[in-house]
What does this fold into?
Amino acid sequence: MSKRALLAFAIVLLAAPLHADFGSIERALTARLGKPTYVPLLGLVRFATWIVRPEGLHDFQLAVYEGPRRGVDAEEIERIVAREIPRGFSPLVRTRARNGEWTLIYARPDGDRVELVVVAHDHGDGDTTLIRVDIDAVRVARNMGDAHGMVKIAKR
It folds into this structure.
């Protein structure tokens, strides 16, 4: 076996368990909401993020369930996410608007980094989005405290 193949195999073995939590939440939501929408080139963008790490973002994963689904119930989705979210995550935000929109945010700190899992539902178009981000919390907080720094980031 070539050294490159062995290295690639080792990376896959080490990386797969790190994001199994996203996969389990995505599978549970897929069982309830149907197949997520394919986002072209998302894998390439994610790979570039691992290399470039723009403004403190280390990694992300995304699943978008578009359009009206069989009556998305916020409480049911909250139970699914709470059941599937791995240990170490704590609920950070739970909101429900009268118009049917809702958001769930869970966080898991790890030194200077924070992993966030966000599940949001837009009642207007019926989309439900699941995203996991791994950010450098110190760098993001520093940029948030600097209004000019945030404007520079937003203009990019």
Q: What stands out?
A: The two ends are 43 Å apart (CA to CA). The chain has six helices and five strands.
